[in-house]
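Journal club side-thread
Mid-discussion, someone asked how the predicted structure for our own chain would compare to the paper's figures. Pasting it here so we can look after the session.
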Amino acid sequence: MSDLLYTNGPVPYREDLFRVFREAGVEVRFGVPSGNLRSEWEQERPKRVFVPEFSSLALTALRCRKRFGFKVISLCDDSMDMIRGNDFGWKHRLARRVVPRYLDGIILHSPDVRQWYLSSFGKGFFMPIIADERRVRPELERVLPLSRQIRPTDKPIVAFVGRFVGLKNIPTLLRAFEPLRDRAQLVLIGDGPERQALESTAPHALFTGFLSGDERLAWYNLIDILVLPSTQEAYGAVTGEALMAGARVIVSRKAGPPGPGRGGEDGCLFGPAGEKGLAACLEKVLETIPCGRPVTLRENLLPYRFETCIQDLLKEINSL
C-alpha cells in the first residue's frame, strides 16, 4: 500500500517536492487519470490520496474516501490576491468555499494563505514552492564560467523571466525602466505571443528567448534585480529561483509568493496598475547595487530552506 499523488504534469518548480515524496513512499502520477479510479483505489488501497486544488478529481476522491479508507490532501496554489477576489474564475471561488471543509489537509505555499485557511477551515500545511538548495546551489556555482562568458555588460542587470503574455504586465516594466536605461541593462528571458510587439517598443532591451538548463542557471548568476510585474499570478516561482541565486526581487502585489526575502530588505513590493511605483522600487534597489560586481556565487536570500520545510510537512502529513 502506497500513497498516491495526482498532478497535471512534471512541473519543474515542484521537482524536488515530488522527489522527496517518492522517497517517502508516495507514488506520483502525472496527467489526467485514465480508467476507473474506484477500481484503482480498490486494488491499491492507498493511505492518502493527494489531489490538485479543488478539481473534479478531488471531488471524486472525497466521495470515495470513506469506502476505501484514505485521507484526501489537496495541493493548492492559492495566493492572498486570489482569495481577495482576483481569482481565475467563479468555479474556483465557489469550490474554495465548500471543498476545504471536507479535505483532510491542504498544502499551501504562502504563510498568509495558510493562516487564512487555518482561520477559515482549521486546516493548512505550509510548503513554499522552492527548489532544494542542496541541489541548485552547486549547479549555480558550476555554471559560473558560462555566466562570465555571456555577461553582456558591467552595469547592473534588471530582468524579467517568464512567458510574454498580457497577465505578466511587461509593458509596465518597460515604461518604468526607461528613465534608468543608462544605469542598468534590461534583460527579458522567455518567449510568448507578445514578444514581437515588445521587441518593437524596447530596442534597448536584450531578449534572450526561452532558456533552460545551464543557460537559464547562468543568467540567474547575472541578474541583480528580478521584476515580476504580473497583474495576476498564483505563485511566481521565478522569484524564488532568483532569491536563491542572490538576486533582489521586485514583485507586484498581485503576484504570489515567494516574494522579497527577510521582510523586504532584499526587494520591494509595488502596485501593478502604473509604472510609478515600480520605477520607485527600481530606483531604490539599484542604489544598493554597484557596477562591475564580480560574478561569484552569492548568498542565498530565500527566507525558507527546502529541507526544513519538507521535513516539517512530512511530519504534519504523517500525523493525520
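Post-session note: The chain has a mean pLDDT of 91.
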